[in-house]
Design brief:
heterodimer, A: Aldehyde Oxidoreductase, domain 4, Aldehyde Oxidoreductase, domain 4, 7-stranded mixed sheet, 5-stranded mixed sheet, globular, B: alpha+beta, DNA polymerase, domain 1, 2 domains
Amino acid sequence: MNTISTPVRRLDAVEKTAGFTKYIADMDFGDFLYGKLFRSTRARARICTVKKPSLPDGYYIIDKNDVPGENAIHMINSDWPVFADEFVRFIGDSIALVVGPDKKIISKILSEIEVEYEDIPAVYTIDDSLALKGGVLHGKDNCYGDYTTVKGDPESAFSEAAQIYENTYETGLQEHIYMETQGVVGLWQDGKVNIHGSLQCPFYVRHSVTPVLGVEEDGVRIIQAPTGGAFGGKEHYPDILTTALAVAVNKLKKNIKIFYEREEDIVNTVKRHPSRIKIRTALDIDGNITAMDVDSIIDGGAYESCSCIVLQRVVFHATGVYDIPNVKCRGRAVVTNNVPSDAFRGFGAPQASFAIESHMNHLAEKTGVGSLDFKARYFQKKGSVTNTNGEIHEEVKLKEMVAKAKAMSDYDRKVKEYGKSSSKGIGFSLFNHGGAFTGNGEKEIINARIKVRKLKDNRVEIYVSNVEMGQGLLTTFSKIAAHTLEIPIENIIFMQQDTELVPDSGPTVASRSILIVGTLVGKASAKLKKQWVDGEEITVWQEYEAPKDVIPWNQETLQGDAYPAYSWGVNVVEVEFDKITCEIKIIGAWNVYDVGVPIDRLVVEGQIEGGLVQGLGWAYLEKMEIREGRIQQRTMADYVIPTSLDVPVMENDFVLNPYEESAFGAKGAGEIVHNGGAPAFLEAVQMSTGTQFNSIPLTPEKIMESLK
Amino acid sequence: MKQKINFTLNGKSVSVETDPLKRLIDLLRDDLSMISVKEGCGEGECGACSVLLNNEIVNSCLIPVGTIIGASIETVEGIRESESGKRIIDAFAVEGAVQCGYCTPGMMVGAEWILRKYDKPTPDEIRVALSGNLCRCTGYDMIINAVETAAKRGLK
């Protein structure tokens, strides 16, 4: 039967494979100059003097003095300056932009700029930050955010506990390694700054650039170029580049390109937040969980960017898919003088999921029950109260998903066999992911609007600000419109994400595209269908409408429904352990998801597989260390992501669970797919080595140390 | 110092006056408009700049132009015109092998190389052959399937 889930050929597949797609570096913008940032070499210092060399003709140094508006990049907060003023806060902080026609001469100029610094003791760790080493760096306590939620009465439950189990779980940095590095081009056209770039969120860039230039919203124009991967790394980071670029274009009235080479990209751009999560669990005399206390701390690095929003997701996903009667969650995001951390697929949920799943596995082992049986006692279900005293509104199909994944992976047999001195192991993780902006953000912050326009020739244009960046949005949005209108997908035109062409339907983040904006495309298409007259031009606008029957959100108290709906997933990962080298080989992976109804099964399976592999890379291959603020793994030879040889054959399946508020019942799938790989991997490694681990990346060196 | 370099690009003779130390990727992209050749890392790790040099797959970011005199260079701009190239493109579309697409032309060069070398490549052979081409989106399985599909369709 042909349904919305039946795969179609992705609309961009042929053009991309055949090499016709022009990414930002492939486009011809005529005459242009290159720009390259001059950066801090100190992690925390006061700038005493900057001595500039004399410049050859046609070369320029742009800095804080050239900023016509505010020297502050507006993200969630606006603490990150375009160019450092008095202080630098991390190695790589922007001080100036050198602009000119020849890259070699630009490099020479960069090497000739002399800065005299006065160093201040820097903070590189969570503990140093909380101890306010070197003096306060942010606010009063070095916390970008400090949130607490309470459900039930955890205090009494802990005082009455028969036993308490406590452990701490740590995760490391992760670099996005989108295959296409950061790239933006600024043009002086129509008397204003025009920016083309590899971007997730053209309206975020506009939001950042306009106050820096001191112009109104229509004073700049932002256009997305085909984007070669992003994963959160092109959500806010392009604001750093485009604000500096805009200042230069505005001053010089010339076209300028800033393209990062890979090393520049790896060492200067934002990362996934490292985390340290302590979980204390109260158990009664029979070994039942009566309460949990989850204390999560993430390292936000030198500027806030969206650390607080990431932190909220850490806190709201702290007890995973489990309904624990009494829960206290505290989360803090701290400032350090490390490279800032920001959005990365999963947005804090992978860190939370790693901790809670690992903790539940340990609890199961302590109580002598199989981990899946133990976890099943606490599965959330429809009506369960969440940690923010909201509610799970949907049917939770975890049991069905577990049964499927067990059958696919032959789990029960393997658990029995591998338990006894085999070098193989199998792990199982369960997780969810709240869709869209936290709480009432969709209404209060975004309030998305879109339009569809029927042309006289009966083709239909879709106007949204959400971008195709590899996740398949071009195809899935077109499919929603085509299926609703019952017209061929070839008759849908997906308009370019250009701030002067499309309305602001919000950023391409937070697993909100399908859930929120896809829904608007569906509604607008349904209205258009009713009004349809062959040969006439018709435009239909659609604004966001909050879902019915949710518990209202209070952003001050963090109470209510944190998310309108959740996607759900389970991963099974099988590994083989080499006792000599301590290397782990992943030999199997099985994945079952409830994403409502997949809009194109193949597109969603692509998310499932890619996200799992990214999560597994984070779990055991992708080691990134910072020593005294300096990233050690600086190239793709040092920072290793999974290759085709590190990946097993994966099998995927779905449990259908239509969400009544969305187009065709779909929920998001872009981020949840990163949430389960690491804990499933860890459980499998523990089975194969007979040793407990609590931190990732779990490298062979770390395993070898622990087995000594 | 510039030098005259003659070679074949996608079956056609090319003659350029250029610095022999220039990277092949720069010659192809900047001087000859072969934009299918992508730069991902600039150090031979990622395979986005893969081309065929005398039928072997190489990273064009590591090849100085002075070493390709008289050689045959093939890029996706040439491969896409061939029967096998069209089969690969179709198989990539059918199997879901494309997401952001930035690694994909390099993968296509890899696929063409596999199809020339093996009549019936096994999934393991494909996995090994493509292990120098990194993809951050797909998790690889769908790319492996696509190459296998393209090979099978070439047999009938």
